[in-house]
Amino acid sequence: MPSVEYSAEDVVEAAYRPIGDAALVSWGGGSGPWPLELEPQVDYRVRYSAWNMDAGHQAGPPMDDDPLVDRYLLQFWPARPAPDRVVKETSKQAAYWHKFAREQPTPAELAEQKQEKARQAEELRLAEYAAAWGGALPSERMEGAPHGRELSALDRALVDALEQTDPHTLRSIARWAARRACEEAGYAGTEQIAGVLDRMDHGADWFETLHGPPPVEPRTEPHATAQLVLQAHGWFDNREPIENTTTVVSSTFNDDPFQAAVETVWFATQPFADKGQLLVELRERFLTNPAS
After folding, report:
1. Burial of 190 (0-12, 13-18, 19+ CB in 10 A)
2. Less packed terminus of the chain by CB within 10 Å, N or C?
3. Distance of CA 196 to the CA centre of its chain
4. DSSP assignment, residue 286?
5. What is the pLDDT of residues 118-161, one digit of tens each?
């Protein structure tokens, strides 16, 4: 450890460990760097001594031909880590920056603040997520249900009730909702759609529900051609009635009865000017007095 330059007006010491090639640069990086030739990953003690800091602060940056006003000395030596310390304080500039440094959080406080900030961010994220699901965090089953979030935002209590409903009733709810949507849209009076709804209620499989029973005699001439038509998944007012019917009826065939009920009920609200009307009817028919 070098001896302290007691002619200096301000002296501070701190622990320092280079993580790579250490170098000295001017404030703002305007000049330098000047390599310090310190061993990386070795603990050092660094001392910063200053003369005429206040005068230098008032004088501003010197030109090349100006006499030196303030000067500084940096000294490094190998040493075990120890707390920072102010060896000597004289100038107003040093007093200002010491006060500023003392007001800064310690590494432990910074870590605690970081954890608290992360906790608050997570709390906000969960609150926003819960708000999107009608005011409460969803269960894993709800998250997996197509349009579960949309229906939860509309009526979270209903989705909670559906999650506690038995599979048989959920299937009944899905089929009832699909039929009710077609009725509200004015589709149920057409022969084609009425047939689809009747076959759905009688337990036909998906293909037979939408296309009718297969012919008794297999056709030989002409050859039957299967065609796959891709369309947007949802209920849209400007589509053909049979397309919307196909959408809402197909959702009743989801392998999971809860998912079938949630998705179908959501689709079924679309033709209603007041979406809550369908949900009121659903509660009265299946949840308030299910025995009837």
Report:
1. middle
2. C
3. 41
4. I
5. 999 999 999 999 999 999 999 999 999 999 999 999 999 999 99
